Structures are given as structure tokens and as C-alpha cells.
Known about the structure:
With 397 residues, chain A is an all-alpha fold. Chain A has a domain at 34-77 and 117-156 and 226-396: Orthogonal Bundle (MetI-like fold). Chain A is built from 13 helices and two strands, in the order αααβααβαααααααα. Chain A has a two-stranded antiparallel ribbon. The relative contact order of chain A is 0.13. With 331 residues, chain B is α/β, with parallel strands linked by helices. Chain B has one domain: P-loop containing nucleotide triphosphate hydrolases (Rossmann fold). Helices cover 34% and strands 23% of the residues of chain B. Chain B has twelve helices and twelve strands. In chain B, helix 3 (114-125) packs across helix 4 (130-143), helix 3 runs parallel beside helix 6 and helix 4 (130-143) packs across helix 6. The interface between A and B is medium-sized, with 29 and 41 residues.
Amino acid sequence: MIGVNRKIGVNEKSFPTPSEGGVLEAPKKTLFQENWGLFRKNRLAMAGLMIFVIFFIIAAASVFLTSGRDPIFDPALVRLQEKLRPPLAKPKLETLKPEEVPKLGIYLFGTDDLGRDVFSRMLQGAWVSLTVGFVAVGISVVIGVFLGGIAGYYGNKRIQVGHLLSPVLLIGGVIGLVYGQTGEGLFLLLFGLGVALLLLFPWNERGGQRIPAGLSILFVNLFSVDLLIIGLIDIMLCFPSFFLILTVVALLPASIYNIMIVIGLTSWMGAARFVRAEFLSLREQDFITAARALGVSNWRIIFRHMVPNAMAPVLVSATIGIANAILIEAALSFLGFGVPPPHATWGNILSKGKSFIFDAPWLTFVPGFAVLIVVLAFNLFGEGLRDVLNPKLKERH
Amino acid sequence: MSFGNDLLLSVEDLKVFFHSDGVVSRAVDGVSYEVKEGETICLVGESGCGKTVSALAILGLVPQPPGEIPGGKILFKGKNLLDLDEETLQDIRGREISMIFQEPMTSLNPVFTIGDQIEEAIITHEAVNKDEARRRAIELLIDVGIPSPEERSKDYPHNLSGGQRQRVMIAMALACKPDLVIADEPTTALDVTIQDQILHLFKELKEKRQMALLYITHNLGVVAEIADRIHVMYAGIFAEVGNVEQIFRDPCHPYTMGLLASLPSRSRKGDPLYSIPGAVPDPAYKPLGCPFNPRCPYVQESCKAEFPEMCDFGDDHFARCPITYKEKKGK
Lengths: 397, 331
């Protein structure tokens, strides 16, 4: 009697068969949705993202709040009678003209040694930090992706003697012209152009046009493109970058744009290395060969097919790079090499505050904490991003 | 099966060598064949015998260095593709000759929707606007039998199964109505039922579009189903050339015989499956004489000394084996 009325656990009708029109659907989730789901589970990274968004909104709003002829929060308004008021202090209305009264009704972060509202100055500084962070990282990512991409994709190509000779001659010619040596300059320019033309001439070995024997020195292979770019990266990494930036900024006129450009030009090496490494592996992928078999041009393959696939590590390093750029800008301002004084930045508020650290500690603590929180937020966000985008770390969550 | 008799592609004595560490690997060592319009030509052979490389050479996709094409001609519509510069080649790739790859899982770009990728294939070669390209992409998806193509065109490759991805690859290859499609083991990575569907799709599309097909495979079952002419490749050369009937009923090269004997359907129940002893020689160190001689059951002294000539067995049936030639014609 055993097993007579055994129940079968599987209901056969529950399986859709293709004949019944049941199309088997793959789960409909884009890559972004999948990653976002993972990212949300990482509390610290989410906190970082929140702070980043809030900071972004505040900084963007501050442009309208602190600039213009009659700003709502005037960072430059001096009220000497109200100097070094502590945070949350109420203004002494009897000593102030009506237009000098802070719009919030209190000094939220206190005032500095000239009676300027620290809150307004912090707002103005937030915009500086934000733009420096984004523009500098933007520059470094563009340079990094470009150089890394070339090293990764065209790395096998050889640099020939002529490739080095012609730009040297051309640059020499231009320098000659600029400094008045017209004859020598023109000669060098023409010579350089000639070399460049010889290099571009389609020497077709199968077609029978052989390179003339005397010119073959131009075509001696020196080293690969990859080696050139890797060498450049290594040389750039040898400089202690902060001191390099200090030197350059000391020579250039102090302006926020120079700082952005200098930070950008000295921090592209990480991005370049990541992109090169990704390209080296992407280059061998089937879908790249498939795109080439479809007749897609090399530049289109690099920028449309390979760059989007290589962006994940760059995005992560860029996020952390923004934090770094904000720190560098603050440090430069602190040392007095940053944005010139009437304009407030977190670094120069901090720098000024240090002389009053015992009388008015808020002047150092407020910008100090702001830098700390923003940099921490970017780092947490970046690390969360890395965990999500790195498939090897996905299982941990 | 064939629609016209005009010569489309003619490969003459093609050689592709690879250099590494001072060693020369002769991956393709002098092959010649012709593809007429609307014809299906099959290249059959074991892994590593030069099938894929000879196909890549047609499209100019052999990486140089380390690759080198020291000799031969690839005449496509009368032009030698080996003499063309990169730009002209780019224009031919995808528009006149296109290629389908072995691994549908990795041959699509993971970050774009399949609709985008088919559109790109169209936009690369034709001056059409985005809407027109999208409309044609969806038509192509219908042609290759993807259900609900409008929705599917917005899917990413990882949303699709292997068979569907291969259908998308075929759609991309057909996007500009090429005259010649090179299919490099397009069904190898798929399971048997899907293989069968894809093969039928090829047959159907070929009849509809009058394109020639150069089909590369190691699966003799597939060959029997679609080929007009078969080229059996071994160690970079053709061992035997003939039509389906000749190759399957009357194989003249010991290698072809071995391949046929190792088909599961040909062995009797209970007997162990036949396999050719040994492995394909390293293309850098090929044996002297006939490259098949170390594995050949009928090997004779002369096979180890001299490279065999292509012997004419009549009716466009050739095999590179003088031993069987003497045996058969001597009778």
C-alpha cells in the first residue's frame, strides 16, 4: 500500500511552453537599475551620495545668493562693529544700517575679524570648491581617457625617427620666428614640413614604391606608442604633485581658472592608466573585432565602443579625484596661493581664522568641517561606486 | 541552389603567417578557392587549421604585426583586397562583405541596446536618418525571427539568449545587403535545437537575399545540410575539395575519411567512436611532406618526403593525396 497515492509536487501545467505562446522573458532590468539596486544597500555610500547632492544644490544656489549687485547673502559686507561674533549670535540691530542686517536674522556661523558673515562666505567658497573639483577632474579625465585610449589601442604602433624629428623641427621653427630669427625659423619650418610629408607619403611596399635608401633613417623604429605614453605617466608620477602645483601657481597670476587647469594637468595619470589597462583587454574582445568587420572606423570604435566600456574605473577614480582637487584647492588657498583674497574660499577662511583660533574657533572649525564632510562624502561615494562596478566585489553585498 | 554564375570572390594562393619570438607559424599556407554569386562554400576542418584566419584575411582583419600576408591574392569583384588601403576596406566591410562570429555571447557590445547596434551597422555605410535606420533595424529583426522586435530592439545583449543574440548578429551582418557573408562557426556555441533553427534561418535568408555564404565550421552535419561546395582544410592547406555528394559518398583524402568515420551517426551501436589519432600539427613546426602523414593510416615513404600535389578526381573533385589517386585511378 506504500506510495499508491503519492502526490507529485510539480504541477505540469505551471510551465509555459512555447506552443502556448509563453515567451520566456529575461528579467527586464537595465545595467543601471541592477547597479543602483546594489548601490542602495551600501549605507555609507548612500550617505555620501546624499551629502554630495545636498552640497551640489547648495553650491549651485550660492552663485545666485552671493553674487550680483545686491546679493541676498553678501560675503564682502564689512561690519567692523560686529566683528568676531560667535555662531547663532543675534546682530545688534541698533548699530547696523537696515541693509546691513543679515537676511537670516542671526549670524548662523558667526562673523570674522572684519564682521563679515561667515555663512555667506562659506556659500561663496562652496561654489569655488565645486567648480575646482569638477573642472579639474574634467580636464584630467579628458586627458587621461585620450592618452590612455591611444596607448591602449594604438600601443603596438612604433614611433619612428621622423615622428620625433618633424615636431621638434616645427617647434624649433616657430620659436625661431617668434624670437626674430626669420631665416633660420623658416628653414626649420620647411624642413619639418618636408619630413612630415615624407612620413605621410603612402609608401606602399607591395605597390613597388620603395623608400629611398637615404631617407630610410627617418623610418627606423625607436619605441612603441605605448612606451612613450607610459613613460610620460611615470615621469609625471615622479614629481611630488603638490609641490609641482605650488611652483606653477606661484609663477602664474593667481586666478581660479589657473588653479583648475594646473590641478587638472597634474592629476590625469590615474585615469590614463585605468583606461589603458581596460583598452588592452577590450581590444581583444570579440565585439570589437565584430565592429571592425562591420566597417566601423577606428575613432568610432575607440570613442563609441571602447570608452563607454572602460568608464567604470575612471568614474570611480574621478569621484575620489574630485575630493582630492577640493583638498588641494583648500590647501593652496590656505597657503595663500589660491584664489585672491576678496573672494572667499574655504581654504582662505581657514587660513585667516587660524590667527584667531582661541578667540574665534568657529573661523577654523566651520570651513574645516565643511572640507572634511565633503571630501569624506566623495570618498565614500567613490568607494561605493567601485564596489558596485567591480564584478569581483559584488558578492559581498 | 545557386542563382548566378558570376564570380564574386576568388582567393588565389593565399598565405598568412604569424611571427612570434623568431618562429614563423604558417597558419594559412597557400589556399585557393572561388565563391560565385549566391553560392554556399564551406570550409571544414579541425580547430587550429587556419579556417578563421583565412576568413579574417579577406576582411583585412589579420593583425599586422604579428601577422603577415606574404603572398596570394584576394580578388573580390575583380579588385585585390590586399592592395586596398584601410579606408576603402572599411567601406567594403559590412557593406559588401560582412562577417558573423562564433561567440554570440561576446560579439555584441554590452553597453548598447541591440537596436542601436543594428542601426550603427546601417548608418556606418548609408546616409539615412535615425528614424529610417530604426525602421530598417526592426525590419531586420523581423527577418531574423526575433519575436516582438520593437520591444526587443530596446533590450541590451544580456537580456537575450544565445540563439537570439546570434540572430541579432546575423541581422547586423545583413544590414547593408552584402553580397558575401562570412559565417565563422556561427552555430558552434549554441545548443543543438538552436543550431538547427539558425541553419534554417541561413537557408531561408540566402534564398531571399541572393547572397553568397562562406561558411566556416568543424561540424560535418551542418555542412551536409547547406553546402554547395566543401573545402576540407588541414594545417593551412586544402586537403580535399568537392561537392556534398563527392565528399560524403566518395572521400578521397584519408583526412576526410577519418573525419567522416568519426561522425557518431556513422559508427555502429556498441563500437567505440572512431577518432583520428594525434592532433593537428603546430603551424610553426609542420611535418615534412604531407602535413597529415603522422596521423595517416595509409602513410607511405613518399608521403614523408614530398609535398603532395592536388590530384584531379574528375567532376571538380580534388584531393591532395597521390596514394588514393593511384589506387582509385589504377583500378
